[in-house]
Amino acid sequence: MQLQVKGKNLEVSDTIRSYAEEKFRKLERHLADPTRIELELSLEKNPSIADNHVAEATIWTKGPTLRARESSSDWRSSIDELVGKLERQAKRYREKRHNHHVHTNSAPQLAREAGPEYSRGVPVVPGEPEPKIVKLKQFPVKPMTPEEAVLQLELIGHDFFVFRNSEVGEVGVVYRRRDGNYGLIEPQP
């Protein structure tokens, strides 16, 4: 596991760096071998924000890319909460991958052994509900510029808006960022 710790507009102390390395080692048992982790620490300058110590991490694995962000009043708490969130994400991914493998390879046998609960889709991990799609929404994807899409986003009051970018001809997504600005997601060829 390769951990890169960087500070955004601040110098990361050796104490915090070693604390982060120690905490992120807990994730090794949940992730595949060649894993790269980027941890970015930043300090919010706004005095009205009490939880101003922000820790953001991106983990590149053989499977999905995991991302999380946590903030609190000190670095250690932010890192602890962040690692906890990433650990839950990694466990959930590993269990889903394992369950998918089991279901595709031995679904008929498991159905006979598990009884009616298997056919109802009861999650394998007790106490953790299986996330599911609860609503389907369809709408026309109109061509417009990213600036027009931001205006539409503001008008409907959502956190994101899907549109066809008239400048490049591809579908794009504009979204509202935590800092109050907007982001644009474009597909990569």
Task: Draw up the topology in text.
Elements: E1 2-8, H1 14-24, E2 36-43, E3 53-60, E4 65-72, H2 75-114, H3 116-119, E5 143-144, H4 146-156, E6 160-165, E7 171-176, E8 182-185
Parallel strand pairs: 1-2, 5-6
Antiparallel strand pairs: 2-3, 3-4, 6-7, 7-8
Written description of the protein model:
Mean pLDDT is 79; it is low at 106-125. Helix 1 (14-24) runs parallel beside helix 2 (75-114). Strand 7 and strand 8 (182-185) form a beta hairpin. The chain has helices at residues 14-24, 75-114, 116-119, 146-156; strands at 2-8, 36-43, 53-60, 65-72, 143-144, 160-165, 171-176, 182-185. The protein has two domains: 1-132, Ribosome hibernation promotion factor-like (Double Stranded RNA Binding Domain), CATH 3.30.160.100; 143-185, Sigma 54 modulation/S30EA ribosomal protein, C-terminal domain (SHC Adaptor Protein, 2-Layer Sandwich). The strands form two sheets. The chain has a four-stranded mixed beta sheet with strand order 1-2-3-4, with helices on one face. The chain has four helices and eight strands, in the order E-H-E-E-E-H-H-E-H-E-E-E. With 189 residues, it is α/β, with parallel strands linked by helices.
* Strand order, largest beta sheet: 1-2-3-4
Number of helices: 4
Helix fraction by DSSP (H/I, runs of at least 4):
25-40%
Secondary-structure element string? EHEEEHHEHEEE
| Count of distinct strands | 8
The secondary structure category is alpha/beta
Rg on CA atoms, Å: 21 Å
Largest sheet: 4 strands, mixed
**CATH topology grouping of the largest domain:** Double Stranded RNA Binding Domain
Query: Proportion of β residues?
Result: 25-35%
Shape: globular
User: Considering the protein shown, what is the CATH homologous superfamily of the largest domain?
Assistant: Ribosome hibernation promotion factor-like
Note poorly predicted spans.
Answer: 106-125
